[in-house]
Amino acid sequence: MKKLITFAALVFFLTSCKKNISELPEAPGTGSETFGAAVNGKLWTPQKFGIMPSAQILEARYEPGNSFVINARNFASSPNESEFEIRLNNITSPGVYPLNAESGNSAYYVERKITPTGEWKTNAQYTGQITITVNDRTNRILAGTFSFQAGSLYNDAPITVTDGRFDVKVQ
Q: Using CA atoms, how far apart are residues 37 and 126, in angstroms rounded to an integer?
């Protein structure tokens, strides 16, 4: 019985370890379900956690008015987790779109330990841009790149997100 418990603990540990990221995924515009960015220089991608293997880590959905929402989640260091949410309004074609309060387009990043420990969002002062390279509504593919600075909702230092890229199937 002791060997069984030791084996189970080892399996749990190995399946719950955070995967080291050495490079960001490509975004070829084929609906490859990829997302990645550098948050303050540290590479970030969506990741599952060993005890939550069925948790959705990347999703994109249409909203009314040619709008999209992309959510990317990293559960790999649970109970710590982090998530991106990118909201885009009135996107009808490929192009460069601002991420700021005036446009209604926004980027949001949160870190949690059950409840948020830090939240950052683009606003009038901290802005960025998103470049849509593929907006194929027939095949439901959205792809592009992004970068932004986001201000803290808790008076922490702002964050800088660079080298962002995504290639998603929109629901």
A: 17
Cα–Cα distance measured from residue 163 to residue 25, given in angstroms and rounded to the nearest whole number = 10
Q: What angle do CA 113, 115, 121 make, to 5 degrees?
A: 100
* E strand or H helix at 14: helix 2-16
pLDDT tens profile 93-103: 999 999 999 99
- Grouping H, G, I as helix, E, B as strand and the rest as coil, residue 52 is strand
Choose among 63, 45, 42: nearest CA to 106. Answer: 63
Is the model's pTM score more than 0.70? Answer: yes
- Other CB atoms within a 10 A radius of the CB of residue 48 amount to 19
Domain spans of the chain, in order of start: 18-169
